């Protein structure tokens, strides 16, 4: 998953100042929106893994999974940014606006832009009322948090991958298939 997003960042870097190469490759730029969609989906999936291995099942809502990962990225700077953003937008949440918008409508639910944002300090911003998703810094912080989660899981006596969530079917850790690093 990291390589999928890294490829889009590298494509944007290589072609940024080379319009002839862009034309030759028949490209109009890197897949910023598609990369953002993947990163948001992966954030929720890894948050579900985190919550499950804390013995909390799936969490109360899918939003819990998304926030369990996002909020710990970059030492909590994404949580602080999200809380500030949500305070300024009291009728919605970042989860509803960004994650649900991308996953269900292929666009956030407010005006937005998607940049590579190479070298920027944070992967989310708001400028002139527009939500900005910056792929490179989000990916950088996502990768570091994924590595941190992996280390946390490997330190557990019995890390598990949660079973698929089926509507109406209760899940328990006892029913979880055992997946070990050697299987």
What does this structure look like?
- This protein is mainly α and 183 residues long.
- It has one domain.
- The protein has seven helices and three strands, in the order ααααααβββα.
- It has helices at 2-15, 19-24, 32-53, 62-70, 77-88, 94-105, 135-154, and strands at 112-115, 124-127, 130-134.
- The protein has a three-stranded mixed beta sheet with strand order 1-3-2.
- It is globular, with a radius of gyration of 18 Å.
Task: Describe how the helices and strands are arranged.
Blueprint: H1 2-15, H2 19-24, H3 32-53, H4 62-70, H5 77-88, H6 94-105, E1 112-115, E2 124-127, E3 130-134, H7 135-154
Parallel strand pairs: 1-3
Antiparallel strand pairs: 2-3
Tally of contiguous helical segments? 7
What overall geometry do the principal axes of the alpha carbons give? globular
From the structure provided, what is the oligomeric state, counting identical versus distinct chains?
single chain
The proportion of residues forming helix, as a percent range, comes to 40-55%
What class would the helix/strand composition place it in?
mainly alpha
Adjacency order of strands in the biggest sheet: 1-3-2
What is the average of the pLDDT values? 88
Fraction in beta strands: 5-15%
Give a quick account of the main beta sheet: strands, pairing sense, barrel closure: 3 strands, mixed
**Spans where pLDDT lies below 50 across 5 or more residues:** none
What is the count of distinct domains? 1
How many runs of DSSP E, i.e. beta strands?
A: 3
SSE order, as H and E?
HHHHHHEEEH
C-alpha end-to-end distance: 20 Å
């Amino acid at each position: 998953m990291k390589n999928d997003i890294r490829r889009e960042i590298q494509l944007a870097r290589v072609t940024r100042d080379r319009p002839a190469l862009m034309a030759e490759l028949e490209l109009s730029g890197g897949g910023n929106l598609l990369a953002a969609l993947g990163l948001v989906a992966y954030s929720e999936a890894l948050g579900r893994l985190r919550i499950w291995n804390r013995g909390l099942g799936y969490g109360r809502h899918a939003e819990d999974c998304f926030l369990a990962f996002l909020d710990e990225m970059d030492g909590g700077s994404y949580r602080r940014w999200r809380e500030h953003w949500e305070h300024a937008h009291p009728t919605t949440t970042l989860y509803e606006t960004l994650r649900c918008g991308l996953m269900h409508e292929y666009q956030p639910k407010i005006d937005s832009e998607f940049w590579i944002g190479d070298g920027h300090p944070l992967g989310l911003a708001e400028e002139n009322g527009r939500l900005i998703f910056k792929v490179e810094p989000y990916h950088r912080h996502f990768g570091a948090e994924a590595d941190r989660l992996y280390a946390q899981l490997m330190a557990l006596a019995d890390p598990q991958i949660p079973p698929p969530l089926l509507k109406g079917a209760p899940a328990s850790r006892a029913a979880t298939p055992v997946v070990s690093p050697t299987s």
